[in-house]
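Same chain as my last thread, 497 residues:
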Amino acid sequence: MSGTPAQDAAFVDTASRPETRGIELISDAERHGRARDLFLIWAAPSVSILNFTIGATMILLGLELWQAIAVILVASLLWVFPGLIAASGPAAGTSGSVVTRAMYGIIGNRLFVAFVGWFIGAVFLSLTWLASSFMGADLLGRLGLTDPVWAPIGVTLVVSAVTILVAIFGHGLILRAYPAMSAVLFVIFVLVAAFVLPTADWSYRAPEPLSGLALLSALSIGFTILASTPLSFINSPDIARYLPRSIKPAHIAWATGLGGAIPSIVFTSVGALLATGVKSGFDAGIDAILFDLLPVWLGPVLVLGVVVNTIALNAMTAYTSSMALQAIGLPLRRIPAAIIVGVVGTALTIYLVLTSSLLAAANLMLQFLVVVSGPAMAIYVVDALWRRYRYDGEDLFDERAGGRFWYTGGWSVPGVGALLIGAFVTLMCLSTDIWVGPVAAALGGVDVSVPAGMLVASVGYAVLLRTPLGAGGRPDARDARDGAVVGASALDERSRA
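reply #2:
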């Protein structure tokens, strides 16, 4: 018997009421929207205070200004990956956490989603809530509320509550509200940039210019930190899944990728420029530095912008993580699952508030994030291109032993094997303050974790797919003729019946 969740006949995808749908298949009759709508949806989370933080890190690593901007531009090319996988959502008509059953098998995918989906979700929930906590607490401190513990915790609780409320209302509200959020955030951060840029040292030279292995190491570590953001958005199919399946995958890829890349390039570069004009004081936090540079009236506006961005990014993360919980197999509706995600993320944020600085937490967690996100993204892209986005939603929900994606005892050896090998190679090539892999050590601290891990994972997966181990999930003649329309047509017939 198929494991396809029951449809809610009364469901309407609207901003005015909570979205009850989770991973259930979306029929052709319910599809709506345009590919270009995705641009502003992805722009809102990308206009972020974390971009300032990461940009400043490029200078703190010892890079020249032109080197920092060059590595920012190169790393931004990785936004093509969440763009490429986004089209699998409309093709299958369900969440990306269900589509990955085609890569890891029915049982293997539960472990993948539980670890990768939750790990990535928890990291970004906590990091962005942490940013708003520090910024809000700094502003409250300037107003006389100086409690170092309860001020940031109070900000965290308020922002997280609003965030989860947006996640509960779901796709309809995201589609309606995020373009407005993008416009507000763009205006606020441009205002901030206007006061930051005059302080920048456009002829900046590193106090001790790097060369040789030291330069390669700094460039590679900076690239890894920057790469972690686009490679983490393995949830991009969830946001696109309501689009009509007739939309070309290339249009979805361009809208998603550019929506994330353009704001990231602009404001990460501003962060690098900010660091050139600040000779010291980063230990106090980038929030304190910005408040000192900005006029009194703009400080609270910036905090508003950070809060709006936090809500935009974390509502999207909580929204997709709630469907990940369903895909694991937990007997939860999407709304209770979103509340659980919010509670876990809030607890982790409070822990980080009490133990970390924003700069230290962001850099370390973003570097370790690529251990799983890079190989997982590479495997997803290979699978989507290999199948030419032909995913049958009905087959993805067939959890029976012997079903198309049951593979070997519920595990796909090509997918799970390639992921583990890719993660191992990434870890061996990683270079951080607390861990330097043997390959990175042999290279003098040069971090090649992202390209090495993604290359090994993608090549390994592509090779194993062509062996008998990958035979069960290969695109067949029916897919070539009819594509994913088969699953949607069957769903429409059941709905009419």
